[in-house]
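Section handout, structural biology tutorial.
Before the tutorial, make sure you can parse a SMILES string by hand: atoms, branches in parentheses, ring closures as digits. In the record below the ligand is zinc ion, and the chain has 308 residues. In the tutorial you will relate the predicted structure tokens back to the input. Do not try to memorize them.
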Amino acid sequence: MSGIAPTLPPQVRVFVRDWLSSNNILLKGREGHVLIDSGYARHAPLTLALLATPQGIGAAPLARLVNTHCHSDHMGGNAAIKARYGCPIALPDGEAPLIDAWDENTLLLAYADQRADRFAYDEVIRAGETHVWGDLEWQALAAPGHDMGALVFFNPEHRILISGDALWANGYGFVMPREVDPRALPATRATLEMLAALELRVVIPGHGEPFADVGAALARAFARTAAFEADSLRVARHALKAVLTFALLDQRRLPLCDMPAYVERIGIYRDFNARFFRLSPSELAERLVAELEKVHAARREDGWLVPA
Ligand SMILES: [Zn+2]
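Predicted structure of the complex:
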């Protein structure tokens, strides 16, 4: 997947994290340092430690924290960073009402068995604006699909994109089936078309290494979108697998005997099952576990489901 090694301007630092915490992108500037995305709440101590290294900002202040979108793995460290640095938090204007209401359903928190510490934001960013972060100009572009309020940040000078979960080297963040949100898949396709027209040189994704082979990544994303458009059940299955994999990374292991009760208890499994699969809780649990095993995301061990 690496292909051509991407080069980034020296003031752009990427802390590549994992699938529980989003990457943290540090833009170091003469006028102050800006951090894009704060990782998952459980990993906030590591996020703070990385930021305080010499590769980060050392003992310098942080001027601003910006979110690409407000999922738990991108905003979970917001509260901890604000407590440490006292910096303003800027987030996409489409996300602001959800943060105001702190609706654990629409934010996919309790609804998906995920957590984030509540925080207050200070500024909103609108699509079409240009901001100077790390001495570079970044255009905020609307990137709805995986998250309908998401923004991506594009630097025209170096043709770099900070993509959040709108484009990864292999795919993008899970999308709601059309029966749940009829806007999501058409928006996903439109966002990919918008990104394809930017002639990007490097993408800094929300998860995984920065990559330069953008054409291949877009081809994979378009292929996935076509498969999703043809089959709502596939979209629903993919979402539940992504959410279960996340829960497994968060909690490190889940008791197999509790899985049927778990998929009954957590809203997204219960709702998707009623709408798409109509299986008994134990059938749904068994099917999800088997699918995670098949793609080597998880394995069974002594009565537990553990990350593979
Ligand atoms: Zn996301």
